[in-house]
Amino acid sequence: MLAVIVLEILKRIPLIFSTIIKHFKHGPPQPSWDLKVHLIVSIAGTLGAPPYKKFTIEVAQSSIPIFTYKIPSDLKLYETSIPHEYRINAQAYIEKIVKPYNIVIDPIWKTPRNDEIKGELIMDKDWNEENDWEKEKIVLYLHGGAYSTGNSKIAHDFCCKLSRTSGARIFTISYRLAPQNPFPSALCDSLAAYLYLMNPPKDSGFKAYKPEQIVFGGDSAGGGLVVSLGLAIRDLGLPLPAGIVSWSPWTDLTHSMPSFNDTAVDETDFLPLLPGFKFARNTNSDAYREFRTRSGNIIRNIQKNPEIKIIGDESLKRIGNQSVSFYVVNEGLGIPYVSPMLAESLGGLPPLLIIAGNVERLRDEAVYLAYRASNPEKYRLPKYEVDFDNSRFKSPSKQVILEIYDEMFHNFHYSHLEAAKVTVRRASEFISTVIQEALQANPTSNKFETYKITYQGEVQNFDESSIEHVLTWDKAGVFPGV
C-alpha cells in the first residue's frame, strides 16, 4: 500500500517543478501565497485526477492516514469503543426521520458489518474524572473524506490544537463509510456517539455529559454531517447540543452553487470539479461492484414508481442511470439530512459557527447555509419544502456566525498558516461561550454576525455585496448541466 502511494508521489515531481516555475514566473494564484502554499494546493489538487483512477475504494479507505500523528506530551489520547446498543438506539431514532425517503435509501445501512464504533478521546494529560464536572466541556468531532474515505485519526493534529486552546476534550469517531455503508449510516453512528456521551456505560471512564456541555465540530463532509446531525436531533425533539462548528462544510451534494462550478477555483483549491467526489474510481473492486448493483436496483425501483414524489428539483431524476455519489442515489441528494443546505428550514438549531475559505469550491454552500439559518423565511426553497408555513422551525436559529477567510482553500484549518491559528482561537472562544451560556440557561436574542478574516488574521466586517450573487441564486438544489 505504502509503496503504491510513494510511487504516486514520485509521479508528481514534474508537477512540483512546473508549479515552482509558474510561481516565480507568473506569480501565485493568490497574492499572499508563498511557494509552500502554492505547492500544497497544486499537489493536493491531483487527488481527483489520474492516476487516482487506479485506486479501488478499498485502497482509498485503507490508505488514510498514511502516517500516525504523535500526540504532544501535554495531551493524552484514550481509545474507546461505543457499544453496539448505542447504534441500535440511534437506528430506531433515525428510522423515524428517514421513513419518508425509504424508496431512495439502501436498507443495508441497518445491518452494520461491525458491532462497535471506534473512537478516541483527546484531552489534557492531567485530565481525570475527579475534575469539577460542571465545568467540563467536550467536542464531538466528525472527520471529512466525502463520506467514503477517512477515519477519526486524520483529524488528530487539528483536534490536539483545538483541545489545547479551548480546554475541551475532543471525541472523534470512525463512522461507517460509503458505499459499503451508505446514507444514513454515518448519521446513525454520529447520533450513537452523542447518545453515548450523554449516557455512557459504567466502564467508560467518564461521567454523563449534559447536552449543554457538548459542541459538535467537523470539516468537509464531517462539517456537513454535524449540521445534518443537528437537524436530525431537532426534528426528533431530542436535547440539542450547546453549539455547532463547521469548517469548509459540504452541505449541498447536488453541487448546485456557483463556486462549485467556477473554473477559476481550479487554481485556488485542491478539491476537484468531480461530482460526488468519487476519488476511488477503479472498477476492479468488490465494493464498487456491490455499489453498482445495489444503487442500480434502487434507481430502477424508483423509475418503476414514478407516482412517488421525490423531494427536490426534477433535475435529480434526470442526472442519469448511475449514482454520482457513493453516499446516496441521485434522487436522494435532496434529502435534508444528506444536503442540509437544502432543508425546508434551518431554523431552530443551536448556535452555529460556519467557516469557509474565500477561494474554496464549497464556499457558497457555507454562505447560503448561514444565511438560510439566520432567516428561514427570506431564503425559502419551494422545491424542497413539504409544508413550510406550518413548520415548527420557521424562526431563525438562535445564533449564526459566518466567517470567510480571505485567500483560503478547502480545510485550510489543517495548514500551518496564520489563518489556521486564528480559526482555532476563534472557534475555541465560541465553544467556551456557547457552553457557558447553555449551562447558565442564559437566552440570547437571535443574532447573525458575518466576518471577513484577512490572510494575516485581521478580523474585518464582511462585505455582503461580494456574495450578492449567491443570495439571489435561483438554482440552489438544481444539479448543474441537467
From TrEMBL:
<dbReference type="InterPro" id="IPR013094">
    <property type="entry name" value="AB_hydrolase_3"/>
</dbReference>
<dbReference type="InterPro" id="IPR029058">
    <property type="entry name" value="AB_hydrolase_fold"/>
</dbReference>
<protein>
    <recommendedName>
        <fullName>Alpha/beta hydrolase fold-3 domain-containing protein</fullName>
    </recommendedName>
</protein>
<dbReference type="InterPro" id="IPR050300">
    <property type="entry name" value="GDXG_lipolytic_enzyme"/>
</dbReference>
<dbReference type="Pfam" id="PF07859">
    <property type="entry name" value="Abhydrolase_3"/>
</dbReference>
<feature type="domain" description="Alpha/beta hydrolase fold-3">
    <location>
        <begin position="139"/>
        <end position="268"/>
    </location>
</feature>
<keyword id="KW-0378">Hydrolase</keyword>
<dbReference type="GO" id="GO:0016787">
    <property type="term" value="F:hydrolase activity"/>
</dbReference>
